[in-house]
Specification:
Number of helices: 13
Shape: flat
Distance between the termini: 171 Å
CATH topology of the largest domain: Rossmann fold
CATH superfamily of the largest domain: Succinyl-CoA synthetase domains
CATH architecture of the largest domain: 3-Layer(aba) Sandwich
CATH class of the largest domain: Alpha Beta
Strand order of the largest sheet: 1-2-3-5-4
Number of domains: 4
Radius of gyration: 60 Å
Amino acid sequence: MNKPSDQKQEDLLAPSQESVYTVSELTGQVRALLEGQFAYVRVVGEVSGLSVASSGHVYFSLKDERASLAAVLFKSSASRLGEIPEEGDQVECLGRLTMYEPRGRTQLIVEYLVERGEGALGLMFQKLKSKLAKEGLFDQARKRALPFVPNCIGVVTSPTGAAIRDILKVLDRRFPAVEVLLYPVRVQGAGAAEEIACAIDRLGDGKDCDVLIVGRGGGSAEDLWAFNSEIVVRAIVASKVPVISAVGHEVDIVLSDLAADLRAATPSVAAEIVVPNQALLREQFGERIEGLATTIILRLTRARRQMAELARRIGDPRLVLAAHRMRLDETMQAGTALLNRRLRISRRGFTDLRIALAAHDPRPLMQNARVRLESASKRLAREMSAGLQARLSLVEARRASLAELDPQSVLARGYSIVSRADGTILRDSSKVAPDDDIHVRLQYGQLDATVKKTGQK
């Protein structure tokens, strides 16, 4: 028979409908709960057990009189701080709570750390604000005007929060015809900033929406911190359509408010701003139609009066036309008489010019000049022929003289040209010695010879 304690143990280990977790599954779910519940937390405590790893990461614990919490300051965050805390320092940390699963230990991942009393969240806000302002992301000059009547409004917010309900309620009251495209995101907690930035990138490409409303309802500084994220600010600046930031209440100022084209105190105010009042527009439209109709009637009445006055001044147009026709006939008759008179004068002048031209006829002068030209041409031809013959005779005489001086003619008379082997012409037998090679050129051909002896005449 089992003991009572053994029976209880068997009952605990007996199969049941309750879930059975592995260690990894349980620690994973605990980590998810921690990160979802404590996205950003501020923790005050004393630094204990501080050590700097070779990787540059700083490990320490935060403790008070009753508890201790493991913390890590990664190298990227530590480099922003400039100074690493010392053992025993009282500090305020801003970070994310998670679980280090290999050891099953709750741990704080510190992103910013200051000495106690300086306000970590505020310092982090001011530092990021200063950095982005230097880049010009908050400049008023780059901000754009909203469309007067948008066709589609993109809304980036939580689908279950009060913000979307307030926005839809106001839009339905002011301009129910406008289309609203909601991109649901988390507005706080881990990953919220990334989701908001992604939504702005998607809706802000200009393909579907004319304007964006980005925001949420009120909350603590930690709840609103996603809208202070650098990636959200840069996504707003990069949007191709205007962006309205509507975060929290009127007293809440976040960096998305500074980067947006327009800041609304609340989501409801954003909805008031983004569309005109349809009922007011209809009223104004009706008033303008009435004013336009009145203006048209007044102008038509004035035009009728002006036409009546003109008709009175002009009179019967048929009589006016008859008078113009008679004046035209008189003008044509006077013009015809003037033209005939000028034509007679021109004819007389033409006759006088023809007589004067006959007296100065150039043709006889041209005939005499032609005769003189032919005589001069024949004389020139004779003189050129005689000169050419004389020059030909001179050329022939000079050619004969040149022929007599031609070396070939000398060779034809039985002479020869003797030269040394190097081509030097020999004129004196003393310039060579026996056994020297010589070259002899004849009229027909040449000889290579060797000197046997030399002598002088």
